[in-house]
Write a structure and sequence with these properties.
By secondary structure, this protein is of the alpha/beta class. It has one domain (about 1-165): Leucine Aminopeptidase, subunit E, domain 1 (3-Layer(aba) Sandwich), CATH 3.40.220. About 40% of the residues lie in helices and about 20% in strands. The chain is built from five helices and six strands, in the order ββααββαβαβα. A six-stranded mixed sheet has the order 1-6-5-2-4-3, with helices on both faces. Helix 3 (about 85-100) runs parallel beside helix 4 and helix 4 (about 120-140) packs across helix 5. The mean pLDDT is about 95. It binds adenosine-5-diphosphoribose. This is Macro domain-containing protein. InterPro entries: Macro_dom, Macro_dom-like. It comes from Megamonas funiformis YIT 11815.
Length: about 170
Amino acid sequence: MISIDLGDITILDCDAIVNAANKTLLGGGGVDGAIHRRAGRELLAECRTLGGCETGEAKITKGYNLKAKYVIHTVGPICSTQKNQASLLANCYKNSLDLALKHDIHSIAFPAISTGVYHYPLEEATKIAISTVKTWLDMHKDYKLDIIFSCFDEKTYNMYQRYLEA
Ligand code: APR
């Protein structure tokens, strides 16, 4: 099932929340900063052992002080003229979902990856997020997974609502 939540991803009580991280995986601003603040210092300590993360890839850690048992860290593309930005962004969702399957995760929340500091156009990013998730679910019909799109503001929420109903 796919749903949308307007609010803070760090308080969601689901198996995993996804972090829109940077390649160092050593924290930052935006949702990355919020997740690290609420998870506590042990999250950073575990992230230090991961050796970073390439754009489009995803790595998993415990959730520590979060309600979520896991954090899946993925690195979205920084919007530029490079033509493979769309596939890199799609890979963030696909690789995060593949990790959820591998770790028997049955509820996962995604922020609007790359649409903040990385300036990916919201409408295009929303379409990529929804189509990638729907395709993945179609290919894994036998795996129960609830997906929440966590929207931090009305603009993002309305965009997801518009394209989920499309
Ligand atoms: N809960 C849910 N969504 C949030 C939260 C939160 N607590 N805080 C921010 N967001 C939203 C933003 O409003 C935006 O819609 O997450 C989306 C992604 O924005 P960013 O966090 O800026 O992430 P991104 O655009 O992928 O840029 C990643 O920013 O924080 C740094 O270390 C991070 O370098 C990396 C870059």
